[in-house]
Amino acid sequence: MAIAYLQEFTIQGGDTSTKNYDAVAAALDLKEAPDGLLIHTAGFDHDAGVFRILDVWETREHGERFIAEKLTPIVERMGQEAAERADDTFTPPSRETWYELHDSMTG
User: Fold this and answer.
1) What is the pTM of this model?
2) In the CATH scheme, what is the code of domain 3-100?
3) Alpha-carbon separation of residue 11 from 6, 42, 89 (angstroms)
């Protein structure tokens, strides 16, 4: 069964821009879905006060490989650049978890 990967980023000071997400997405420069990715979603949950990213992968190994090989190097570089600018808006997720899906459906 597929596995979900969830990240939540607390909305800081009412900032609902997507500049950090958009910068990471641009740096990834994906022309097609990574191997094993079934769905990717990203958006604001204003009731919970978070920007939420939810990915569904064929296997955890697919997701972990993408994160380790593609995503983490970009996020680490951008985080370092933000720190050098004293920009505290590039923050790690306030919540991050994997969970096995009992069921999923696509249309």
Assistant:
1) 0.92
2) 3.30.70.100
3) 16, 14, 10
